Amino acid sequence: YVLCAALCAAGPALAATGAASDTDKASADAAAPTEPALLKQAEAAAQHGDTLAAVQLYQSAIIFDPASPSPYNSLAQFYVDTHQPDMAEKYFTIALDVDPANPPALKGLALLDLAAGNIAGARKQHDLLVSACGEKCPETAQVEKALNGEPSGAPN
Q: Do the Cβ atoms of 58 and 78 come closer than 8 Å?
């Protein structure tokens, strides 16, 4: 949507000049979306309460790079933050389909299991997390704190 709006707005101006100059082409290349830029825009939209735009931007990041687990994790965390655990679980699971040893997705599923009272599921995710990134990784530590009933601090 955002990309279309930018391209649709630029289209008539480019058509009026006949052909784009090298400067116009360089500007268009510089404005091309990247996964990090789309995720940053999605986070900004979410912070401003524009949930529809946030979801569209997260989905654009997924389309931009479907082989990266990062946008799936970001969208899943958005759903955690907006109290939609079923959608969060869906996107954490997709992130694991992309990268079966993905620590943020394993942590996310463990914390969702724990929040739902599924301690056995949370422990299973914890064990997978230890196998994936070890005892010392931050995601493992956060899940261990949650399993021990300690406050985990930030939800990410």
A: yes
Tokens 């620590």 sit at which residue?
A: 103
Distance from CA of residue 5 to its chain's centroid? 22
Q: How far apart are CA 84 and CA 143, in angstroms?
A: 20
Rg of the chain on CA atoms, in Å: 19
pTM beyond 0.85, yes or no: no
Burial of 80 (0-12, 13-18, 19+ CB in 10 A): buried
Give the mean pLDDT of 1-27: 42
Q: 61 and 74 in contact (C-beta within 8 Å)?
A: yes
The Cα–Cα gap between 103 and 88 comes to 15
Is residue 152 within 8 Å of 146, Cβ to Cβ? yes
Q: Which amino acid makes up residue 99? A: D
pLDDT, tens digit (0-9, with 9 covering 90-100), for 15-70: 343 444 455 554 444 567 899 999 999 999 999 999 999 999 999 999 999 999 99
In the chain, alpha helices (H): 2-17, 22-30, 35-47, 51-64, 69-81, 85-98, 103-115, 119-133, 138-147
- Are 133 and 140 in contact by the 8 Å Cβ rule? The answer is yes
